[in-house]
Specification:
Number of helices: 3
Structural class: mainly beta
Mean pLDDT: 93
Number of strands: 44
Distance between the termini: 58 Å
Low-confidence stretches: 1-43
């Protein structure tokens, strides 16, 4: 691993500062003698705390390759063998490729593994080969292929088509596929994903068995089919609007977007690129040359390693540094507090924050331009009232010129062990962009049960003018999404209600049967959503009835387009889609009930 020079500030070491301190001490020590008083026994200066350095090496779980590195395929295979089925394991890896051309590789990605190029453009780093996700570990079922990512690479697939058979929390960003993209596992088994952004796929994308997918600000050569809910915004080559048959929801542009920050090399120096905000975006940011934005040297980041304390992370932030979280697991005994406008908190390789003793993992002040990206928050065993808070309660400042972005930030309650949180993510700051999140109360793994991993609410939006692009929220005991802010917008929503409700009484919401997956508060007068789906699978008590998937005030300013509810195999049923509108699901056939427009 190359060492990066540490050129951060070094407070208290200036010769002039030392002379000033020593001179002051000498004068103080001399004064009592001049007055005929006794001298103090000691007059040593108070030491200032050592400043934390910026920059540094990226740690043992960031593996950097260049085209001359020997044994690349063997190393990729080694990491994959370890991570292929380690769904709730502790391994975390980032595989980074310096600009150049790599031949004959097949990078198979397992859990908690990120692969990325280190150029400014995907075309700076070309793999003549594949970046593959398949489902052999799970008998050809891709519905649990979570927590992995590919970014910033150009691929020439060996057989002309790259396979990316993923489920939730597996983003495909800034990728250039010089061929087709197959989103299903070998044998076309079950699949439940997914998310593409800022990518160009020259051939066709084949979802095949994928139940739902969201693609944003990209270019595709074609799109072969749809199952339940395929949503596109700002995608060149996207199929035309046709929901529900086929179930394509297509917006010509994305209202507001700002791509995720990413690490790259400028010569031999690591930097972090910060893409600029776009309005009414369409197509990639990089197709016509260098992307627009700014960058920061790594020396302006505190490069965190597992084992660091929350106090040290906060000291780095107070000092003016940004945070780069290298792969691993971080236990927090106090919240990470982001107070400075423009702060970047960027995780590599699914860096994971675990709040201990019921604290909140991360909070931000009500400031402009914070960028939170690329990490997982795993609830601790003691209930946290919240896990992530963007802005304090009552935040009201207008951030439209420079919003906060929450991108590839994933939250998990249970699965790796019993975890609890009352509300997972709270958005108080206005104009926040939630760009791809999966907020998941676990339905399988360790520490799973109706009360064992209790989590009543997934996301609560209090701030006005919040935009969600790619919202995945599943299995909460009560509401999965609650929206109180005005002028909120959601483009694509995927939800499953909690499988493990023991009976009808357990989910009863006053006189209403069940809590809606997506609830817009009665006080809201303006809201809009496109391509939203909710599914139920009440396998503990299949007689449970869910009144609706969506609940909202019936007012002209609250609008929904292309809604669906699905009963998976008849395990529970919906009476309506939204409010009292939409046909009930029935029987054991997994056929969606849809509403094209509401009201």
């Amino acid at each position: 691993m190359p060492r990066i020079p540490t050129d951060g500030p070094d407070l208290g070491r200036s010769p002039l500062a030392r002379r000033s301190v020593l001179g002051a001490v000498a004068a103080t020590a001399a004064a009592p003698a001049l007055l005929g008083l006794s001298s103090p026994a000691s007059a040593a200066p108070v030491k200032k705390p050592q400043a934390l350095p910026g920059g540094g090496d990226l740690g043992p779980n960031v593996i950097v390759f260049d085209p001359s590195t020997p044994g690349i395929q063997a190393k990729l295979d080694e990491v994959f063998r370890q991570q292929e089925s380690a769904q709730f394991g502790t391994g975390r890896y980032a595989l980074l490729f310096k600009p150049g051309t790599y031949n004959g590789l097949n990078a198979q990605l397992g859990f908690y593994t990120s692969i990325a190029g280190l150029g400014l453009s995907p075309d700076d780093t070309t793999i003549n080969g594949d970046v593959t996700v398949d489902a052999g570990w799970f008998n050809g079922n891709a519905t649990q292929n979570f927590w992995r990512s590919a970014e910033n690479l150009a691929l020439n697939p060996v057989n002309g088509t790259n396979r990316w058979a993923v489920a939730q929390a597996a983003p495909f960003r800034r990728m250039h596929v010089k061929g087709g993209l197959n989103l299903s596992p070998t044998g076309y088994g079950w699949a439940s994903g997914g998310y593409i952004a800022d990518s160009r796929i020259e051939g066709s994308v084949g979802p095949y068995s994928q139940q739902q997918w969201y693609t944003r600000d990209s270019s595709v050569g074609g799109w072969l089919n749809a199952v339940w809910n395929m949503v596109f915004s700002g995608v060149q080559g996207a199929p035309a609007q046709s929901f529900p048959n086929p179930p394509y929801t297509t917006l010509d542009t994305t209202p507001v977007s700002r791509e995720k920050p990413f690490l790259y090399l400028s010569g031999s120096e690591y930097r972090v690129f910060l893409p600029e905000k776009r309005t009414n975006a369409r197509g990639t940011t990089w197709g016509s040359g260098t992307p627009r934005g700014s960058s920061l040297p790594l020396s302006q980041f505190y490069v965190a390693k597992p084992g660091v304390t929350a106090a040290t992370l906060n000291a780095a932030l107070t000092q003016g540094l940004h945070l780069l979280l290298t792969p691993g697991i971080y236990h927090l005994d106090q919240p990470i507090q982001v107070n400075r406008a423009g702060t970047v908190v960027l995780g590599l390789g699914y860096a994971t924050l675990i709040p201990d003793n019921g604290v909140t993992a991360l909070r931000t002040a009500d400031v402009d331009g914070v960028r939170l990206a690329g990490f997982l928050i795993d609830a601790g065993s003691v209930n946290s009232s919240t896990l992530l808070e963007v802005g304090p309660t009552g935040a009201s400042a207008n951030h439209s010129a420079n919003p906060t972005t929450v991108q590839d930030v994933f939250i998990r309650i249970g699965g790796a062990g019993a975890g609890k949180a009352t509300t997972s993510m709270v958005i108080n700051s206005r104009n926040t962009i939630i760009d791809h999140t999966w907020v998941w109360r676990a339905d399988h793994g360790t520490g799973v049960g109706w009360e064992t991993n209790r989590a009543d609410y997934g996301i609560r939006v209090n701030g006005d003018d919040v935009l969600a692009t790619g919202l995945f929220v599943e299995h909460f005991n009560k509401y999965d999404v609650q929206w109180y802010g005005q002028r909120g917008r959601t483009i694509f929503f995927q939800n499953e209600k909690a499988y493990d409700a023991p009976n009808q009484a357990a989910i009863q919401n006053g006189t209403v049967k069940g809590y809606a997956a997506y609830k817009v508060a009665d006080s809201v007068t303006t809201h809009e959503g496109w391509g939203l789906g909710s599914y139920c699978y009440y396998n503990v008590d299949p007689t449970i009835v869910q009144h609706n998937g969506f609940a909202a005030p019936n007012t002209p300013g609250v609008k929904f387009h292309d809604l669906l509810v699905v009963s998976l195999g008849g395990q529970g049923q919906y009476e309506h889609v939204i409010n009292e509108t939409g046909a009930p699901t029935s029987g054991t056939s997994t056929v969606p009930s849809t509403v094209v427009s509401y009201p």
